[in-house]
Specification:
The complex is a heterodimer. Chain A is mainly alpha-helical. Chain A is built from 17 helices and two strands. Chain B is elongated. The chains are: A mainly alpha, B alpha+beta.
Chain lengths: 517, 225
């Protein structure tokens, strides 16, 4: 509906029955951002993958704190309900952007939104509480419950990535929770933390928000990147290139991510002398990520690449992530950002990085671990249709969207036809909207494949992909307690494919030394 | 790609566009190189038969690691090049304060740009101040300093054709400057979500020739002659 309004301003939207107004447009844009980041990406990538995979991969019966875990799930459910409820209260849901900048968000009269915005803050606060509980579990479990022989440097990379994401989240969320409380007080009790007329400062929120916001991006990105690493290694039939160095690169990127927040604020009224230091840290973050990307490419080099659906999604995700990575350099450069800040270039950039990881990486993970979860295989043919459709429509939507940004089109405008210089871009907006509808429709084969394969899919063996990590040593789906008998011990690093001097093509982590060949 | 940029009509816009192009070509080469490499791997190393065996390359020796570390070092050098070239442009646009020929105050208020001229005495807060909604008249080829203030929420003062954008924050007065190089009428949209009227909040910048600007001043302040 957002795209429809941009392509055909003020016209009736099919299936919705009427055009949307600018206040509704703002609300939709806000809720789209909030739901996607906090209520799709985080639960799917961090929570679902973390809870399912960590115990199976490290050789544990369950997470370290199962009750805390359950509480985290229910708090998340309440948070989702609160957010959904905000659609139905008088004056509608939050409409101040997913970043919720005050003073716009701090006074009812500025947006006309009443309780909707308070509910939005409440839902976010509950969501953070839920992930604090989950995050502690994701850290404590791999540290304390590893099976015999599973040293830290024998953990699969995805476990490292989820641990890294949890650390980033735990360290960055504190200031934002404080900010959220301030914002609630400003709205309801007349304080002025963010209101200049009462001695407050609107920029304070931006610092608190982005100090959290940039690490948050990596909270989403790292688990998906970890899934892509697992999959690329398995289907290239090759050990990961530079396993330890990747872990160090992620640590460097994690530390840097706390030092880049002001790149969202180059032109916010921040002292302009601060821009260049932040610009330099921002652009430098490309080095550890370049290292990870090059390591993935090196992992494929000389492999025996088995092109299954999960592999296509992982490789497609890598390809799009490179695209999103290079466009980030434009935004990170302070002078270029003067022009492209708050334009569609930024929108296109973060969709390229987040779509590639959250959706392409997330789909790769689903196709890959589906047999382990449900004991049946997904259909390969429809999987590939889904991949190529998603990949091509994605490019058709987001590559031209960069050009809109180059043309100067601002984000978050409900009616682009009101501006002369943006009006010229209308045909491009129409094209993107058609492509976006295509992107939505091509998800249908996935839905049918996902649901249908639970009943009619081919029965999956313990290890359908000939992979080496521990989760493939138990029946699919795993019984309660994860292994029917004793938990296997670990004898070697993960990813031992095509080891010289060994006749088997792959060596599971659990096989004892000398028992093979 | 660059054909999509709106025409540049400011003295520093060309410098910003030059950095844009520099980054475009640098990352363009990397992008094409990595994508070609990726596709090459997919074709060259795809599994053709069941017993095809891959190479064992853990990347833990110096000679293997060099394949990744040397490109990374190149990335680092290019990053710093982009940073240092960019720093000069940033300093020119945002740090330098050239002596202005005209000072105006622009106040963002839901959903208008209120333009205040100090009048012939050159001072704000005097009787000859003049407030105009959404129209900013300036002379061509002259440095204009804009003092940005906000009354309610955050707005963003955006001149796409002059490559200038600066957020407007309540409680602060933020100086910005530009020097237009071509006469004409240009839009001034608000680029920061500021409420239900955000879409459509815009003003116009009128860049006049020197004679036209003098004539416009005479119509506004006839007594000052």
């Amino acid at each position: 509906m957002i795209r429809w309004q941009l392509a055909y301003p003020e016209t009736e939207i099919p299936l919705f029955g009427r055009p949307i107004g600018p206040d509704e447009y703002n609300a939709f844009v806000t809720m789209h951002g909030t739901i996607m980041v906090f209520f799709v990406a985080m639960p799917l990538l961090v929570a679902a993958m973390g809870n399912f995979l960590i115990p199976l991969m490290i050789g544990a019966r369950d997470m370290a704190f199962p009750r805390l875990n359950m509480m985290s799930v229910w708090v998340l459910a309440v948070a989702s309900l609160v957010l959904l409820a905000s659609f139905f209260v008088e004056a509608g849901p939050a409409a101040a952007g997913w970043t919720g900048y005050p003073p716009l968000s701090a006074r009812i009269e500025y947006t006309g939104v009443e309780y909707g915005l308070d509910l939005w803050i409440l839902a976010l606060a509950l969501e953070f509480a839920s992930f604090l509980m989950g995050g502690i579990n994701f850290l404590v479990t791999p540290i304390n419950l590893r099976t015999r022989g599973m040293s830290l440097f024998r953990l699969p990379l995805i476990v490292w990535m989820i641990m890294g994401a949890s650390i980033l989240f735990l360290l960055s969320v504190g200031p934002l929770i404080a900010g959220a409380v301030f914002l609630l007080l400003d709205r309801n009790l007349g304080t002025s933390f963010f209101l200049a007329e009462g001695g407050g400062d609107p920029l304070l929120w931006q610092h608190l928000f982005w100090f959290f916001g940039h690490p948050e991006v990596y909270v989403i990105l790292l688990p998906a990147a970890g899934a892509m690493m697992e999959i690329i290694s398995t289907f290239s039939r090759k050990t990961i290139f530079g396993y330890k160095s990747i872990i160090y690169a992620v640590m460097i990127a994690g530390v840097l991510s706390f030092l880049v927040w002001a790149h969202h604020q180059f032109i916010s009224g921040l002292d302009p002398r601060l821009a260049m230091p932040f610009s330099i840290t921002t652009i430098l973050i490309s080095v550890p990520f370049a290292f990870i990307i090059f390591s993935m490419l090196a992992t494929m080099w000389g492999g025996s690449i088995w092109l299954t659906t999960p592999m296509w999604f992982a490789v497609g995700g890598l390809s799009v992530f490179i695209f999103g990575g290079v466009t980030g350099i434009f935004n990170g450069s302070a002078p270029v950002d003067i022009y492209i800040h708050d334009t569609y270039f930024v929108v296109a950039h973060f969709h390229s990085t987040l779509f590639s990881t959250v959706f392409l990486g997330g789909f790769a993970a689903l196709y890959y671990w589906y047999p382990k979860m449900f004991g049946r295989m997904m259909n390969e043919f429809w999987g590939k249709v889904h991949f190529w459709g998603t990949y091509i429509f994605f490019l058709l939507v987001f590559v031209p969207m960069h050009l809109l940004g180059v043309g100067g089109m601002m984000r978050r405008i409900a009616d682009p036809s009101k501006y002369e210089f943006v009006k010229e871009l209308l045909p491009m907006n129409e094209f993107i909207t058609v492509a976006a509808i295509g992107l939505l429709l091509i998800q249908a084969p996935f839905v049918f494949n996902f649901l249908g394969s639970m009943f009619v899919g081919k029965k999956a063996s313990e290890n359908p992909w000939d992979a080496t990590t521990l989760e493939w040593t138990t029946p699919s789906p795993p019984p309660h307690g994860n292994w029917p008998g004793a938990i296997p011990a670990v004898h070697r690093p993960p990813y031992e494919y095509a080891v010289p001097g060994v006749s088997e093509e792959w060596l599971p982590q659990s096989r004892p030394e000398g028992a093979a060949s | 790609m660059f054909a999509w940029l709106p025409e540049n009509v400011s003295t520093y816009g060309g410098d910003i566009d030059a950095i844009f192009k520099l980054i475009y070509y640098v990352v363009g080469v990397w992008f094409v190189a990595t994508q070609v490499f990726l596709v090459y791997c997919l074709i060259r190393f795809r599994r053709r038969s069941g017993n095809q065996r891959s190479k064992y390359l853990p990347g833990n020796t110096a000679s293997q690691a060099a394949w990744v570390l040397i490109p990374c070092a190149l990335v680092l050098v290019l990053d710093l090049w982009i940073d240092f070239r960019g720093a000069d442009v940033w300093a020119k646009v945002k740090l330098s304060r050239p002596t202005p020929n005209l000072i105006v105050r622009v106040t963002g208020k839901q959903f208008n740009w209120i333009v205040t001229y100090p009048g012939p005495d050159g001072k704000f807060g005097t009787a000859d101040d003049k407030k105009i909604d959404n129209d900013l008249h300036v002379p061509v080829n002259q440095v204009v300093r804009v003092l940005l203030t906000g009354e309610d929420v955050i707005h963003s003062f955006y001149l796409p054709h002059l490559r200038l954008k600066q957020d407007v924050v309540p409680g602060r007065e933020i100086p910005a400057w530009f020097e237009a190089t071509k006469t004409g009428k240009y839009e001034i949209p608000c680029a920061e979500l500021c409420g239900f009227g955000h879409s459509g909040m815009k003003g116009f910048l009128y860049v006049h020739s020197e004679a036209d600007f003098k004539a416009w001043v005479r119509t506004q302040w006839p007594s000052a002659g």
